[in-house]
Amino acid sequence: MTDWKETGLRYAAAGTSCMCASCCTNPIEVTKVRIQLEGELIQQSAVTAYRQRYYKGLLRGLVTVARDEGIRGLYKGLIPSLIREAIYSTLRFGSYEPIKKLYGAKDPTRTPLSIKLAAGATAGALGSWFANPMDIVRIRLQGDGQPLPGQQPRYPPMITQSTLYSTTAG
Protein backbone atom coordinates (compact mmCIF):
# COMPACT_ATOMS: atom_id res chain seq x y z
CA MET A 1 0.00 0.00 0.00
CA THR A 2 1.36 3.45 -0.85
CA ASP A 3 2.07 5.98 1.87
CA TRP A 4 -0.70 8.31 0.70
CA LYS A 5 -3.25 5.52 0.61
CA GLU A 6 -2.22 4.30 4.05
CA THR A 7 -2.37 7.83 5.49
CA GLY A 8 -5.81 8.44 3.97
CA LEU A 9 -7.07 5.16 5.37
CA ARG A 10 -5.66 6.06 8.80
CA TYR A 11 -7.44 9.42 8.75
CA ALA A 12 -10.75 7.87 7.66
CA ALA A 13 -10.61 5.05 10.22
CA ALA A 14 -9.72 7.44 13.04
CA GLY A 15 -12.53 9.87 12.33
CA THR A 16 -15.17 7.23 11.65
CA SER A 17 -14.42 5.13 14.73
CA CYS A 18 -14.48 8.13 17.07
CA MET A 19 -17.69 9.43 15.51
CA CYS A 20 -19.33 6.04 16.17
CA ALA A 21 -18.11 6.13 19.76
CA SER A 22 -19.51 9.65 20.13
CA CYS A 23 -22.96 8.41 19.13
CA CYS A 24 -22.81 5.89 21.98
CA THR A 25 -21.41 8.24 24.63
CA ASN A 26 -23.47 11.36 23.86
CA PRO A 27 -26.19 10.58 26.46
CA ILE A 28 -23.49 10.24 29.12
CA GLU A 29 -21.92 13.52 27.97
CA VAL A 30 -25.27 15.33 28.16
CA THR A 31 -25.84 14.06 31.70
CA LYS A 32 -22.28 14.90 32.76
CA VAL A 33 -22.60 18.46 31.47
CA ARG A 34 -25.95 18.91 33.23
CA ILE A 35 -24.52 17.63 36.53
CA GLN A 36 -21.52 19.94 36.20
CA LEU A 37 -23.67 22.97 35.40
CA GLU A 38 -26.05 22.19 38.24
CA GLY A 39 -23.13 22.23 40.67
CA GLU A 40 -21.98 25.58 39.29
CA LEU A 41 -25.41 27.17 39.59
CA ILE A 42 -26.13 26.20 43.20
CA GLN A 43 -25.05 28.95 45.61
CA GLN A 44 -25.64 27.11 48.90
CA SER A 45 -23.75 25.02 51.41
CA ALA A 46 -22.49 21.66 50.19
CA VAL A 47 -24.99 19.63 52.24
CA THR A 48 -27.99 21.70 51.12
CA ALA A 49 -26.81 21.65 47.50
CA TYR A 50 -26.38 17.87 47.64
CA ARG A 51 -29.93 17.37 48.88
CA GLN A 52 -31.47 19.73 46.31
CA ARG A 53 -29.79 18.28 43.22
CA TYR A 54 -32.05 17.68 40.26
CA TYR A 55 -29.71 15.24 38.52
CA LYS A 56 -28.88 12.76 41.26
CA GLY A 57 -25.94 10.89 39.75
CA LEU A 58 -25.25 9.51 36.31
CA LEU A 59 -27.93 6.81 36.02
CA ARG A 60 -30.67 8.90 37.63
CA GLY A 61 -29.55 11.84 35.51
CA LEU A 62 -29.91 9.79 32.32
CA VAL A 63 -33.43 8.77 33.39
CA THR A 64 -34.31 12.34 34.37
CA VAL A 65 -33.21 13.80 31.02
CA ALA A 66 -35.04 11.05 29.11
CA ARG A 67 -38.20 11.58 31.19
CA ASP A 68 -38.17 15.39 30.89
CA GLU A 69 -37.01 15.77 27.28
CA GLY A 70 -37.41 12.36 25.70
CA ILE A 71 -34.71 10.39 23.96
CA ARG A 72 -33.91 13.44 21.82
CA GLY A 73 -32.81 15.23 24.98
CA LEU A 74 -30.09 12.63 25.49
CA TYR A 75 -28.77 13.37 22.02
CA LYS A 76 -28.62 17.15 22.28
CA GLY A 77 -25.40 18.41 20.78
CA LEU A 78 -24.84 15.25 18.74
CA ILE A 79 -24.19 17.06 15.44
CA PRO A 80 -21.49 19.35 16.86
CA SER A 81 -20.09 16.33 18.72
CA LEU A 82 -19.81 14.39 15.45
CA ILE A 83 -18.23 17.37 13.69
CA ARG A 84 -15.81 17.81 16.58
CA GLU A 85 -14.79 14.15 16.45
CA ALA A 86 -14.46 14.30 12.67
CA ILE A 87 -12.01 17.17 13.09
CA TYR A 88 -10.26 16.36 16.37
CA SER A 89 -9.87 12.59 16.19
CA THR A 90 -9.13 12.53 12.49
CA LEU A 91 -6.30 15.00 12.96
CA ARG A 92 -5.07 13.57 16.26
CA PHE A 93 -4.91 9.90 15.25
CA GLY A 94 -4.38 10.37 11.54
CA SER A 95 -1.54 12.88 11.88
CA TYR A 96 0.47 10.98 14.48
CA GLU A 97 2.42 8.69 12.13
CA PRO A 98 3.15 11.34 9.46
CA ILE A 99 4.28 13.80 12.15
CA LYS A 100 6.44 11.09 13.71
CA LYS A 101 8.11 10.58 10.32
CA LEU A 102 8.48 14.35 9.94
CA TYR A 103 10.33 14.43 13.28
CA GLY A 104 12.80 11.82 12.04
CA ALA A 105 11.33 8.40 12.89
CA LYS A 106 12.66 5.81 10.45
CA ASP A 107 11.55 2.48 11.95
CA PRO A 108 8.13 2.40 13.69
CA THR A 109 9.30 -0.31 16.09
CA ARG A 110 12.43 1.55 17.19
CA THR A 111 11.26 5.15 17.44
CA PRO A 112 12.71 7.00 20.44
CA LEU A 113 10.25 8.02 23.16
CA SER A 114 11.07 11.70 22.70
CA ILE A 115 9.93 11.61 19.06
CA LYS A 116 6.75 9.72 20.02
CA LEU A 117 5.93 12.27 22.72
CA ALA A 118 6.62 15.23 20.43
CA ALA A 119 4.53 13.72 17.63
CA GLY A 120 1.66 12.90 19.99
CA ALA A 121 1.69 16.37 21.53
CA THR A 122 1.81 18.03 18.12
CA ALA A 123 -1.01 15.90 16.69
CA GLY A 124 -3.17 16.44 19.79
CA ALA A 125 -2.56 20.20 19.80
CA LEU A 126 -3.36 20.41 16.10
CA GLY A 127 -6.65 18.54 16.56
CA SER A 128 -7.62 20.59 19.62
CA TRP A 129 -6.83 23.86 17.91
CA PHE A 130 -9.17 23.15 15.01
CA ALA A 131 -11.93 21.39 17.01
CA ASN A 132 -12.26 23.71 20.02
CA PRO A 133 -15.01 25.98 18.57
CA MET A 134 -17.21 22.95 17.89
CA ASP A 135 -16.56 21.68 21.41
CA ILE A 136 -17.94 24.93 22.84
CA VAL A 137 -21.05 24.69 20.65
CA ARG A 138 -21.53 21.06 21.75
CA ILE A 139 -21.32 21.86 25.46
CA ARG A 140 -23.70 24.81 25.16
CA LEU A 141 -26.30 22.70 23.38
CA GLN A 142 -25.89 19.76 25.80
CA GLY A 143 -26.30 22.01 28.83
CA ASP A 144 -29.45 23.66 27.57
CA GLY A 145 -32.34 21.84 29.25
CA GLN A 146 -35.97 21.70 28.23
CA PRO A 147 -37.37 25.28 28.04
CA LEU A 148 -40.55 26.05 29.94
CA PRO A 149 -43.78 26.43 27.92
CA GLY A 150 -43.63 29.66 25.90
CA GLN A 151 -39.90 30.03 26.52
CA GLN A 152 -37.33 29.98 23.72
CA PRO A 153 -34.19 27.81 23.95
CA ARG A 154 -31.22 29.79 25.28
CA TYR A 155 -29.05 28.95 22.30
CA PRO A 156 -29.95 29.15 18.62
CA PRO A 157 -29.57 26.16 16.31
CA MET A 158 -26.05 24.83 15.82
CA ILE A 159 -25.29 26.48 12.47
CA THR A 160 -26.34 29.91 13.70
CA GLN A 161 -24.50 29.44 16.97
CA SER A 162 -21.24 28.33 15.39
CA THR A 163 -21.42 31.30 13.00
CA LEU A 164 -22.06 33.70 15.89
CA TYR A 165 -19.25 32.16 17.93
CA SER A 166 -16.72 32.39 15.14
CA THR A 167 -17.56 36.02 14.34
CA THR A 168 -17.85 37.35 17.91
CA ALA A 169 -15.69 35.16 20.13
CA GLY A 170 -12.89 34.40 17.70
Describe this structure in words.
- This protein has 170 residues and is mostly helical.
- Helix content is 75%, strand content 0%.
- Helix 1 packs across helix 3, helix 5 (78-102) runs antiparallel to helix 6 (113-143) and helix 6 packs across helix 7 (158-168).
- The termini are far apart.
- The mean pLDDT is 82.
Structure summarized in a few sentences:
Pfam families: Mito_carr (PF00153). The chain has 170 residues and is mainly alpha-helical. It has helices at residues 3-41, 46-51, 58-69, 71-74, 78-102, 113-143, 158-168.
CATH topology: Mitochondrial carrier fold
Give the topology string: H per helix, E per strand. HHHHHHH
- Tell me the CATH architecture: Alpha/alpha barrel
C-alpha Rg, in Å?
A: 20 Å
Solcar repeats: 5-102, 111-170
Keywords: Membrane, Repeat, Transmembrane, Transmembrane helix, Transport
Main location: membrane
Membrane topology: Multi-pass membrane protein
